[in-house]
Amino acid sequence: MTVFTIEDVRKTFTNGEVTEEILKGVNLSLKEGEVTALVGASGSGKSTLLTIAAGLQPASDGQILFEGTNLTEMNAEQVRKIRANKFGFVFQFAHLVPFLTVEEQLMLMLDVAGTKMKKREQKKEIDEILSLVDMGHRKKAYPSSLSGGEKQRIAIARAIIHKPKVLFADEPTASLDSKRSKDVMALIRELTKTLNITTLLVTHDEEMLAYADRIIKMSDGQVA
Amino acid sequence: MNIAWKEMKKNKARFLILGSIVFLVSLLTLIISGLANGLSQDNAALIKDLPDGQFYMTKDSDQTYTLSKIDSNTQDKVLDKEKDAAAFSIQMGFVNDSADKQQSVVFVTSTESELFENVKKGEIVLDNSMKDKGIKVGDVLTNNQYSGEFTVKGFVDQKKFSHAPVAFINMEDYKEMYRTNEMQMLFVPGEDSPQAIDGLQAFSKKEFLDTIPSYSAEQMSLNMIVWFLVVISGMLFAIFFYMMNVQKIGLYGILKAIGVKTSALFKMMWTQMLFITVIALSLSIALSQVFNKFAPEGMPFHLTPDTTVKLSIVFLIIGFIGATLSGMQIKKVEPLQAIQQGEV
Ligand SMILES: Nc1ncnc2c1ncn2[C@@H]1O[C@H](COP(=O)(O)OP(=O)(O)OP(=O)(O)O)[C@@H](O)[C@H]1O
Ligand SMILES: [Mg+2]
């Protein structure tokens, strides 16, 4: 079932006198329980498309349809709410909050998403997610004491703990070695299936495409 | 979950540094304003500690109390009508102690009144600071303009004028010493608005203090010092809060990206600022009060609760404004910026 549709999205950047169209009318629909991989040359606009879809920057034109609403017509607060409740993100770097323990990172996300859970339920939820990403033993650790792969797994846990409908990942394995990359991709795929999430991810690594259900190629601001 | 608190707990050193800046700067301001206030007390405690009311001197004295001479008819009329009023005079002078050492004092005399020390002929009541000069109750003091001798009857606290200790003497003795029959001024306590009295000009307490040239000039410099300090401290606060916020731009971006509200980020910053400022201020107030108690004798230091509260409120407001102004960056942070900036 299609849950997320990108229709004729355009993005132009203006640098002084020069106006450049980076996205030239992109159409894309994403299905529930599927991992869609975006590939393409550097500078082709993959990250731009992903961040626009995720509501992290506005489109210049076009529509982004999700659950019967159009993201491009919402105000900042409405977009923030959707981001907090329905979306999860993983980026090249984990971007964890440096002063929170692993457990607290996830608790913050639950708070932000506005899930009405008792402390005990929260803890149970966190334990479950942490065992999913195989990090249950580092609950009390601060990010500075985690390895790159461990941080990325926590970032994934944070991206899914509030049971988002859509997961966006921009080169989630770029900072990891080949073995760790495979683990992380396998994890993303597994979560997509078990939690029935809609996943859109960008990757440069051919090896990682094995974990995608669908591969979309981008070139020069358009999807092939 | 309280992220403001979690951050302070994890980054103790950073917040400790910020707190100590606030502590040191506010302590400095409190101490300096205590000293300034002390100097001002030292210059005019005699007048400042009188209740609010109206001072009168003659119109032709040109606002100089030493030149004012209240005519005795007028004086009697006013004193008859106003039971609490007093006529009084102030003159710089000297007394010689038993070792014939000259001590400068300010002679003050008045009609019978609760507002001033009333002493019998031949007696003298001195400001406490004269004790440090080795003068005791019962000592005999002399003055070259006075035929008799003064016996020290006692001491009073905090009666200073023009940085000299006050010496209360009897009106008869005063009249003999200064060869005059008139008092310089009338004081009517509790009066908000002056009454029109023939030939006299009225002054509020503040206006009267301002007629004393040494006092008003000194006061202006002291106030200037304190307010400059306050303004500079305010800027220092703002700069330090700003620097802390700049370091945290990446963090704010991440928090925004995962959906934390901007208002929640402001709340986080305000909580931290308030926490730090309140603790730092409490410490500096405590320390300045200790200093108030144990300030060395002879060092004019006077820090009233009034001034302390006023300065604390000013600091809280300044801290708040500083934090909020520097926090405007929070509003501007784009979540995307943080994400594209790489590892934090
Ligand atoms: N804020 C911006 N202002 C101006 N130009 C931008 C901005 N963001 C992106 N671009 C430009 O848009 C183009 C596409 O960038 P984007 O980051 O989407 O590429 P990408 O496909 O993700 O590349 P990579 O594989 O290297 O990450 C680039 O030429 C980039 O310079
Ligand atoms: Mg990119």
Automatic annotation (TrEMBL), chain A:
<dbReference type="InterPro" id="IPR027417">
    <property type="entry name" value="P-loop_NTPase"/>
</dbReference>
<dbReference type="InterPro" id="IPR017871">
    <property type="entry name" value="ABC_transporter-like_CS"/>
</dbReference>
<dbReference type="InterPro" id="IPR017911">
    <property type="entry name" value="MacB-like_ATP-bd"/>
</dbReference>
<dbReference type="InterPro" id="IPR003439">
    <property type="entry name" value="ABC_transporter-like_ATP-bd"/>
</dbReference>
<comment type="similarity">
    <text>Belongs to the ABC transporter superfamily. HrtA family.</text>
</comment>
<comment type="function">
    <text>Part of the ABC transporter complex hrt involved in hemin import. Responsible for energy coupling to the transport system.</text>
</comment>
<dbReference type="InterPro" id="IPR003593">
    <property type="entry name" value="AAA+_ATPase"/>
</dbReference>
<dbReference type="Pfam" id="PF00005">
    <property type="entry name" value="ABC_tran"/>
</dbReference>
<dbReference type="InterPro" id="IPR015854">
    <property type="entry name" value="ABC_transpr_LolD-like"/>
</dbReference>
<keyword id="KW-0813">Transport</keyword>
<keyword id="KW-1003">Cell membrane</keyword>
<protein>
    <recommendedName>
        <fullName>Putative hemin import ATP-binding protein HrtA</fullName>
    </recommendedName>
</protein>
<comment type="subunit">
    <text>The complex is composed of two ATP-binding proteins (HrtA), two transmembrane proteins (HrtB) and a solute-binding protein.</text>
</comment>
<dbReference type="GO" id="GO:0005524">
    <property type="term" value="F:ATP binding"/>
</dbReference>
<keyword id="KW-0472">Membrane</keyword>
<keyword id="KW-0547">Nucleotide-binding</keyword>
<keyword id="KW-0067">ATP-binding</keyword>
<feature type="domain" description="ABC transporter">
    <location>
        <begin position="4"/>
        <end position="224"/>
    </location>
</feature>
From TrEMBL, chain B:
<keyword id="KW-0813">Transport</keyword>
<comment type="similarity">
    <text>Belongs to the ABC-4 integral membrane protein family. HrtB subfamily.</text>
</comment>
<keyword id="KW-1133">Transmembrane helix</keyword>
<feature type="transmembrane region" description="Helical">
    <location>
        <begin position="224"/>
        <end position="244"/>
    </location>
</feature>
<keyword id="KW-0812">Transmembrane</keyword>
<dbReference type="Pfam" id="PF02687">
    <property type="entry name" value="FtsX"/>
</dbReference>
<comment type="subunit">
    <text>The complex is composed of two ATP-binding proteins (HrtA), two transmembrane proteins (HrtB) and a solute-binding protein.</text>
</comment>
<protein>
    <recommendedName>
        <fullName>Putative hemin transport system permease protein HrtB</fullName>
    </recommendedName>
</protein>
<feature type="domain" description="ABC3 transporter permease C-terminal">
    <location>
        <begin position="224"/>
        <end position="335"/>
    </location>
</feature>
<keyword id="KW-0472">Membrane</keyword>
<feature type="transmembrane region" description="Helical">
    <location>
        <begin position="265"/>
        <end position="291"/>
    </location>
</feature>
<keyword id="KW-1003">Cell membrane</keyword>
<feature type="transmembrane region" description="Helical">
    <location>
        <begin position="311"/>
        <end position="330"/>
    </location>
</feature>
<dbReference type="InterPro" id="IPR003838">
    <property type="entry name" value="ABC3_permease_C"/>
</dbReference>
<dbReference type="InterPro" id="IPR051125">
    <property type="entry name" value="ABC-4/HrtB_transporter"/>
</dbReference>
<comment type="function">
    <text>Part of the ABC transporter complex hrt involved in hemin import. Responsible for the translocation of the substrate across the membrane.</text>
</comment>
